[in-house]
Amino acid sequence: MSNETDIGDLQAYARGLAQAGQAAARTLATCGRSLKDAALERMAASFLENAEQIASANARDLEAAEAAGLPAAMVDRLRLTEARIAQMAEGLRQVTALPDPVGEITESTLRPNGMRVARMRAPLGVIFIIYESRPNVTADAAGLCLKSGNACILRGGKEAIHSNSAIHELMVAALTDVGLPADAIQLVSTTDRAAVAHLVHLEGLIDLVIPRGGEGLIRAVVNESRVPVIKHYKGTCHTYVDSPCDIEMAERIAVNAKLQRPGTCNATETLLVHADVAEALLGRVGPTLAKAGCAVRGCPRTRALLPEAQEADEDDWADEYLDLILAVKVVDSLDEAIDHVNRYGSKHTDGIVTTDVRHARRFIDAVDASSVMVNVSTRFSDGFEYGLGAEIGISTDKIHARGPMGLRELTCTKFVVTGDGQLRG
Amino acid sequence: MSNETDIGDLQAYARGLAQAGQAAARTLATCGRSLKDAALERMAASFLENAEQIASANARDLEAAEAAGLPAAMVDRLRLTEARIAQMAEGLRQVTALPDPVGEITESTLRPNGMRVARMRAPLGVIFIIYESRPNVTADAAGLCLKSGNACILRGGKEAIHSNSAIHELMVAALTDVGLPADAIQLVSTTDRAAVAHLVHLEGLIDLVIPRGGEGLIRAVVNESRVPVIKHYKGTCHTYVDSPCDIEMAERIAVNAKLQRPGTCNATETLLVHADVAEALLGRVGPTLAKAGCAVRGCPRTRALLPEAQEADEDDWADEYLDLILAVKVVDSLDEAIDHVNRYGSKHTDGIVTTDVRHARRFIDAVDASSVMVNVSTRFSDGFEYGLGAEIGISTDKIHARGPMGLRELTCTKFVVTGDGQLRG
């Protein structure tokens, strides 16, 4: 995979990918469920049959990563074990079993003049997905796009280029085996970043860009793109323990929300506690956090209750730690908690633990987040946990899709108006 | 209204508008229906009570427009007659009567672990609307944003600045009368275009940009914006007369779609006719068009049937005439018609006239447009005709809203997850 292609060629290359994707998308939009499912089934079988081929491509990426001295966590994300390959196959089988969103009539009304106005789900068209090191995203994302009738253009991390190519090759073979266009799933075959810049300028050819990765990558894509982008920058999630509340439930939820998997975007980063229950709650939660090796950065009132806590500064309220660190603040009211969440949060997932139904209602209405949780852990903010059956990502945008995105969020609706000769008068 | 503000000030001015809008949006998100309806009612009453004040502000704009030699059609769009002021009031009253979309639970499921996962409609936040000369848009757009719980920032055409200011002043008075924040409806008070550029860069403060106007204006906004934009560039709408069809119905629909109001975005610009019915259809439609003064630009086969038709060139297939001109092409098959629509259309509204239900299905599935019509005039593509009760614009985008946009399209949903202490395991 050469980096030496000059810009002129890259621009033509990007346009070529997008045009081929658009042509494939036209076929996918009308090909019906059975062909798409057959292709997904073949892909799953092919991953299992060709697991060694995938593993040996992956070994090349792993060697290069270790030679380049990449951190161990990154090398681990890159690794495709036999179990992970089996998971990719299983993931595609689960997507196969999901209902096809395309063609669903979401509403239909009969107008006074006899015209029927319906909305019908249709694929978006061509989706460009940019992601980082985990090569299993290649299979997951392509499977979701195919099932929802969209052509995709995939741009994985350069560390995973051999793994991604091997997975892509098997998927394309499955597409052509069942008679679907090979260009339904395309992999950007250069690691030159300029290719991304060209692709995100192709308004009218590419319908949606989904960048997944660090905040820097995503901001760069948003700044450059002329195509709509759906994304979340980060997950600075809050759990607010209200007064009154079930203090044991509050303890369990706060601990689960922070500790169950601290490296995920829906883990709680800031715990807000009403002053009336601060002593009781922090007295319970403090030792558990300490035992788990989780540091606390607190406001002065928190530090009075948890002396080992460091002082939190302004940055701590906005930070996404993705680590064993928890910011803690004592607040005097529900509204102070809501204001804090709306000021410092990332509009991802914020929860309240309360027994007062009026407080729950006010929190739900006033907190501006893609998911608002009442008496459950923020860790549940996830497409599978919500029953979507699959997840292409989580959006904190307010346009189109918000929160975990499944198959349906990869479609739009068109109005379908049928009549018997109605004229506008 | 000075144009001499320097860029530094304009940037601060834009940020100030957006921040004030965001603060007002927080109030609107939770204020409930009755206050919003009360404000809308007062605005309607105030327009009627202060019709003279509006008319005299409008007279200043009209004088300036005539002095500047603006075309008569533009001066007419600018004019606020007594009837038009009454229409603005009536429009607000209709919006008052519509259901409030905010807080609607659009779906709700109970998960196996007892957690309830619901989606609830919430306002988008701050909407920036850019429009051209018609001052009644000030009232219409602000009314729809308010009812849907959104703060708006309005930037009208500079020709209408006095009219827009008068309307805006009355609306703000109504807001404060009922206790809602004045900043819920803000008017950009400079005509300097740089203010628009600053506003569309305010990702995170402004949630949506809706530009309405000519294609040039909209393209400039899309190129500049870091905030999501919803728009349609133009309406190159098609009517395809299939074989078999009810030829009398086809004639009536084709004539209505072109002639009923040629200057609108949902008027048909290209008529496609299956070869088998071309002679019958064009023999009927040709004289009617000629009588109405409508020119025809045709393919060679069309010109053989309608000798007065000019030859159509490649541009004619893509043009939005908005005038008494119709492009006509004879095609040999349904698929040729679909390919033509998908190649040259603007994804706005395209219709088929047919008696074959399989052809109707294929056209519906394969045509990539925000509205697909079967046996009705393309002129029905409109929020009021579809029963949305109101229309803020028409979107040909595939993200978020597609087709005519009503109140609901000015909201998003948030996930609301409620439980009794569920933990992720």
Keywords:
seven-stranded parallel beta sheet, 20% strand, disordered N terminus, alpha/beta, four-stranded parallel beta sheet, 425 residues, 16 strands, homodimer, Aldehyde Dehydrogenase, Chain A, domain 2
Reconstruct the topology from this structure.
Two copies of one chain form a homodimer.
Chain A: H1 7-30, H2 33-49, H3 51-67, H4 72-78, H5 82-97, E1 105-110, E2 116-123, E3 126-130, H6 136-147, E4 151-155, H7 161-178, E5 185-187, H8 193-199, E6 208-211, H9 215-224, E7 237-241, H10 247-259, E8 268-274, H11 275-291, E9 295-298, H12 300-305, E10 310-311, H13 314-318, E11 325-331, H14 334-344, E12 349-353, H15 357-366, E13 371-376, E14 393-395, E15 403-405, E16 411-422
Parallel strand pairs in A: 3-4, 3-6, 4-5, 7-8, 7-12, 8-11, 9-10, 9-11, 12-13
Antiparallel strand pairs in A: 1-2, 2-16, 14-15
Helix pairs in contact in A: 1-8, 2-5, 2-7, 3-7, 5-6, 10-11
CATH topology of the largest domain in chain A: Aldehyde Dehydrogenase, Chain A, domain 1
Radius of gyration of chain A: 24 Å
Unreliable runs of chain A, pLDDT <50, ≥5 residues? 1-5
What class, by secondary structure content of chain A? alpha/beta
Coarse shape of chain A: globular
Full CATH superfamily name of the largest domain in chain A: Aldehyde Dehydrogenase, Chain A, domain 1
Question: What composes the largest sheet of chain A?
Answer: 7 strands, parallel
Major sheet: arrangement of strands of chain A = 10-9-11-8-7-12-13
| Number of domains as seen in the coordinates of chain A | 2
Please tell me the CATH architecture of the largest domain in chain A by its name.
3-Layer(aba) Sandwich
User: What integer is the average pLDDT of chain A?
Assistant: 95
How much helix, percentage-wise, in residues of chain A?
40-55%
DSSP strand content of chain A: 15-25%
State the name of the first-level CATH class of the largest domain in chain A. Answer: Alpha Beta
Termini gap of chain A: 61 Å
DSSP strand count of chain A: 16
